[in-house]
Write a structure and sequence with these properties.
Helices cover 21% and strands 28% of the residues. It has helices at residues 15-19, 21-24, 84-106, 179-182, 229-245, and strands spanning 2-10, 34-35, 42-45, 51-59, 68-76, 143-144, 154-160, 166-173, 196-199, 202-209, 212-220. The protein is globular and about 50 Å long. The N and C termini lie far apart (44 Å).
């Protein structure tokens, strides 16, 4: 990779989260942020052109004051830079190394030391209804998922139609990451302004967590798509499971 840019920020509202909202809110399956695994609080996204993006969140000091360490990384990969999984693995190695170095420099508790364990087939292998075992588990619909990860500050699931086309994106945001959808310039002014709600093409809910308020969203991926009764049931199932993994209170109804 070349032209690698790294940002290191402290606090509850790092500017890089809003700056990189486009990457955080990606809809293309190859571009979705994937947890690096191995207990690391980091995610990588490498699809959609030459630019790759990674982010990591490490509690540092007083959690109740939002004293967190956030690392953001963008890089431009060379042409023909390997398979999707190889690119994810390469970026995972870079961002976890940067997180360890930033933690040492900022006097934070050391980041997890295990080797990143990138899951295979993340958001690319279609799971039949009832077959999901990761982030889409118990949603009861065909889906694209990745492994569930309690250390990941963002978790996602793509619901799919009968032909395998992605229909709705379910997402959970922790720490400072709810700032990305809340500052998305394409959102309605009424989106995400209450503890829970529904507007055209979107539904959301929130939960109180050790890292602050978490935000859970369901967003249509097809213009004008309306969720079925099954999709409406899948969203609170996804939100409740993710919230439980992260030690949060149950999401708002």
């Amino acid at each position: 990779m070349a032209n690698c840019s790294v940002t290191v920020e402290r606090g509850s509202a790092p500017g890089s989260v809003v700056q990189h909202a486009r990457q955080i809110l990606a809809k293309d399956p190859e571009s979705l942020l994937v947890p690096v695994g191995g207990g690391w609080p980091a995610l990588v996204g490498v699809g959609g052109g030459g630019e790759t993006y990674a982010t990591a969140l490490l509690p540092c000091g007083n959690e109740s004051a939002g004293d967190d360490l956030v690392v953001g990384m963008t890089a431009v990969r060379a042409k023909g830079g390997g398979t999707l999984e190889e690119r994810r693995e390469g970026l995972a190695a870079l961002v976890t190394r940067a997180l360890k170095q930033a933690a040492a420099a900022k006097g934070c508790e050391s980041a997890h030391a295990d080797k990143p364990q990138m899951p295979s087939g993340a958001f690319t292998d279609l799971k039949k209804a009832g077959a999901a075992t990761g982030t889409c588990q118990d949603t009861g619909l065909p889906s694209y998922e990745t492994e569930s990860c309690a250390s990941a500050p963002i978790e996602q699931c793509l619901l799919a139609g009968a032909a395998g086309e992605p229909t709705f994106r379910l997402a959970a945001y922790y720490g400072p990451y709810p700032n990305a959808p809340r500052h998305d310039p394409s959102r309605s002014p009424d989106d995400y302004t209450a503890p829970s709600g529904t507007t055209s093409g979107k539904s959301w809910t929130t939960a109180a967590c050790p890292t602050g308020e978490a935000l859970f969203t369901m967003e249509a991926l097809l213009p004008g798509a309306e969720p079925s009764a099954e999709a409406r049931k899948a969203f609170p199932t996804f939100a409740a499971a993710s919230a439980k993994r992260h030690g949060c209170e149950p999401p708002a109804s």
